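hi! just following up on the protien thing from before. the input was this:
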Amino acid sequence: MKKFIFLIMVSLFFLPAFQSCKRGENDPVISLRSRNARIMAKWKLTNIEGTIVDHQAGNVINTTITFDGSLYTRTIVAGNNPPLVETKSGSYEMTIEKNGKMSWTQTSYIGGTTDVTTDEGNWYWRDSDKTKSFVNVDGGDIFFYAGLYKIDRLANKELVFIDEGNRADNGTTQNWHKIITFKKD
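and the predicted 3d structure came back as:
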């Protein structure tokens, strides 16, 4: 019994040290692999949930985006107009490799036509080597785009990006928030 209590006390003492290893808000508490080792893998896009709000000339346009791994849906609501719904089906996979190299394959089925795009590009950590909270990746152009992403969760088998921000140009403003989830393939 004394050994059990001792183990609990030691565990409680070291728990804060393990917590400090977390980088992403939802990262695993304990990981035996570095952030570099966890991100280098073949990832399949499994989910997107997002909203975009545009303010243009006094009008508000609300857009919701969902993707379930095969069906992409974008719903646009402008004022009192009926919603405009656009759907596409397909898939997206990316492989993040050592030395900043990556590749991706995007398959889409639009209007009875299958289009497969495969390409290569680069990735890199945008912030310091210690933090590794933001990553810049190249990518496709239908389901997932190249850009700078905040890493919300980087686990052995799951990668979650957050894409959020705002911009203003000549009286038009846009705010967006997307959660993009990949599973290890």
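The chain has one domain: 32-184.
Confidence is low (pLDDT under 50) at residues 12-20.
cheers
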